[in-house]
Amino acid sequence: MVNPIPDSVREVWNKWNVRGVVLFSLSLQAFLILFAPFRKTTARKLLILLIWSAYLLADWAANFAVGLISQSRESNSSDSSAQDNPNLLVFWAPFLLVHLGGPDTITAFALEDNELWLRHLLSLIFQAIATGYVFMQTIPDNKLWVPTTIMFVVGIIKYVERTRALYLASLDQFRDSMLKNPDPGPNYAKLMEEYASKRDAKLPTKIIMIPEPDKESKPSRTAVKKGKLTDLEVVQYAHEYYQTFKGLIVDLIFSFRERDETREFFYERDSLDALKVIEVELNFIYEALYTKVEVMHSKRGVIFRFIAFGALAVALGLFHFEIRKTGRFEPFDVRVTYTLLLGGLSLDVIAFLMFIFSDWTFATLINMSDQESDTQNMSRRPEQEPTVQESAGTQKKSFLKSFVSSILSIKKPRWYEYETEFGPETKVKHHVLITPILLRRWSRTISVHNLIGYCLKKRPSKIYQVKSWSRLILENLISFCGIHLVINKISELINTVIATVVFCKDYIVRNLGSNKEIQVLLFPIQKVMGVLGFLWNITCKVFGWIGSFLLEFFGLEDLIDEIRFLSHEPFTKELWDLIFTEVRRKSEIANDPETVKRISSARGEWFLQDRYLRVDRNKLMDYVVNVDYDQSLLLWHIATELCYQTEPETAENCINRKLSKMLSDYMLYLLIMQPTMMSAVAGIGKIRFRDTCAEAVRFFKRRHLEQDTVKNACRNILSVNTYVKPIEVKGDRSKSVLFDGSMLANELKRLEDDEKEDKWEIISKVWVELISYAASHCDAKTHAQQVTKGGEVISFVWLLMAHFGLGEQFQINEGHARAKLIVGK
Question: Which residue, 4, 96, 226, 735, could crosslink 688 as a Cys pair with Cβ 3.0–4.6 Å?
Answer without folding.
Answer: 735
